[in-house]
Amino acid sequence: MLTKILKYYSSSLVVSIKRSVTIQSNSHLSTQMKLLNDNKQFKKALALFDKHTKNNAEIFSSSIITQALKACTHLRDLERGKTIHRHLISSRTKNDLYTTTSLIHLYMQCNDIQSAQLLFDTTTTKNVTIYGAMMKGYIKNKQAKKAIDLFNQIETPNEIIINLLFNACAQIGTLEALNLAKKVSSAIPKSFHSNSILMASLLDALMKCGDIEHAESLFDKTTNKTIQMYGAIMKGYVQNDQAKKAIDLFNQIVKPDEIIINLFFNACAQLRTLEALNLVNKVSIEIPKSFRLNPLLIASLLDALTKCGDIKQAESLFDNTTNKTIEMYGAMMNGFNLENNPFKTLDLFNKMKVDNIKGNIIIFHCIIRALSQIADYKLSQSIIKQIPNYFFVNNHIQYALIDMWVMFN
């Protein structure tokens, strides 16, 4: 009898120790992977995951799998994520909402809406986080209407869900979307109004749906204005062709960030005046050196300089920029066209090919406009052949081509 008791106790102790070691090992691996992901070392995080998968696949915790899926999401490695789903966690998704949410986020970020939708539909117990992942995914994939339909299924939306709704309304930009944003904003708890991110999204929705007056009123009544709120109003002014108001608002900001300065350059580009050019020069000199590493900011600066008439300074800045992006090329090509210098536009196009930078709609639109100015039929024919066929379905490309062919009768 005593021997049996000792054997049972010994066996239970071994199981307990093994379980304890497993938990500690899982916790350590999860922490290591999180550190790698936080430092944007996603490939290393997956390599570490693979190293432990061989022997411990069945006992991985949800936190470990979530970190692996996070790495796949950032790397846009859909197939890898699907493999993890298929072999490691297919049996868990019905009960593990945390892992399910991570999977939905992966699929949506990789544009696999169908897989995300299937996973969402087959999940019996849905929480607000899963709804949020789906709504965010729909918005990311330009399907804001579906995000709004999903919002209407949620009985008690939290601040994150309402923020996503405002984002969806902003993307649609219709009168119906405006009315929905107003209806929801008037019904939310007062405590939500202290959420600065939520208020910035509401301002953005109001502006993009065309209700500038309401957005201005809400902005003026807000006591603790954040940089995001200023950005939403400035962006709205620029989109509604009120660049002067955007610049006036910019002058109220003590420490503008890169986004605000980018919007400021956009506003100046819209004005196209000598006064705007002087402001561009003044601000560009004062910005921190670190801001000059932001390619979108430099592209906006180039765009402002060219549209305000200082093509020489823009050209100098472009030539001195080592890592040139397609946005920078687009700004300069558009600038050369404005200066009636189409051959320089074509020179940049040839340089892009040498640097192995593929063109987009903006680039090819600039090229067609340059060819219209040159009015050389054979040259135009040879360059148009270099444009991939799928760009010809774009309305802007079609209209530019029609204008060009009209030039040749």
From TrEMBL:
Superkingdom to which the source organism belongs: Eukaryota
Annotated GO biological process: RNA modification
Listed GO MF terms: RNA binding
InterPro entries associated with the record: PPR_At4g14850-like_plant (IPR046960), PPR_rpt (IPR002885), TPR-like_helical_dom_sf (IPR011990)
Coiled coil: none
Protein's UniProt name: Uncharacterized protein
Organism: Adineta steineri
Lineage: Eukaryota, Metazoa, Spiralia, Gnathifera, Rotifera
